[in-house]
Amino acid sequence: METSIAINNLSLSFGNLEVLKDLNLDVGKGEFLVLLGSSGCGKSTLLNCIAGLLDVTGGQIFIGGRNVTWEEPSQRGIGMVFQSYALYPQMTVGGNLSFGLKNAGLPKAEIEERVNRAAKILQIEPLLKRKPAALSGGQRQRAAIGRALVRDADVFLFDEPLSNLDAKLRADLRVEIKQLHQKLHNTMIYVTHDQIEAMTLADRIAIMRGGRILQLASPNEIYNRPASKYVAEFIGSPTMNFFEGSLEEIGGSYAFKTGDTVFPLDGYTFQNGPPASGDAWFGIRPEHMVSGAETANAPVRLDGKVELVEPLGSDTLARITVGERTLWVRLDGQADISHGDAIQVGFDPARANIFDKATENRN
């Protein structure tokens, strides 16, 4: 794949505080990359470095094969959409969209063509003569996206653009942003702390923590084969269930032992071939557990008690206790269970993820 953005050994410090640490990242031309992580992980800082809004301490940034490390934001050929709409309140939507183009000295006919094209793509043509105060939150964010779109840039940067919207508007605009990418095929980098946005929008997700990228892969790869226990815990709601114990090899076969319970690992695929025995974490997602009659064919079965039920309509979440452990199980939306019920759950260890106790990396 042709590279659109290349980041080589990028570092950024504020005094003695290292915010980005020797970071490397290649973004393919036309790719939708999401930077995902908790607050303070460095994702917005990285985006601001790409945009030229922050001066880096070390390393280089290339956009379209050109070294832009020390170029001004206006020279980088990017369009940026911020968390706040940052629209000029005294101007109409059309005025906001055309303002930057007028300052750049573009001909009036070209400005009008670009504004109308962006308005048509974003379905805000009827709003061009309105001022921001007369718009809903979703309409304002569309206008903010339109202002970036008229730049006709090869690269678009989004810094948590939907975080100020309510849940329904977020879902609607998430669909529109995905459709926008499918129409334009521009390179897009999108920062969010919302894993649903990341999973639904991205071609690839970069999970960040402490100024580093822990895993860079497709949404499916990250969800099903997380590189570390941190990534496994961060992705998925409710989080992955974990058992603490040890990985044991007996006669060429592997098993996981937790307390007096043994999980056979026939069918489990180890990341780098057969590992050494030792302390480990065993993780299984709530939706990979079954209950009721389905447990009859499960290689592992556990008896528990229902502690909490969360009916969500499409499915039901149950928090259960098994001995001293608390587990989450995702059940059918019409599951007939209540607090205090006895329940048997089961799962296939082949669908699990095992992490080394010392490094917390996937085995």
From TrEMBL:
Keywords: ATP-binding, Nucleotide-binding, Transport. GO terms for molecular function: ATP binding. The keyword ATP-binding applies. Residues 5-235 form the ABC transporter domain. This is ABC transporter ATP-binding protein. Belongs to the ABC transporter superfamily. Signal peptide: none annotated. InterPro entries: AAA+_ATPase, ABC_transporter-like_ATP-bd, ABC_transporter-like_CS, ABC_transpr_MalK-like, ABC_transpr_MalK/UgpC-like, Mo/tungstate-bd_C_term_dom, NA-bd_OB-fold, OB_MalK-like. PROSITE patterns: ABC_TRANSPORTER_1, ABC_TRANSPORTER_2.
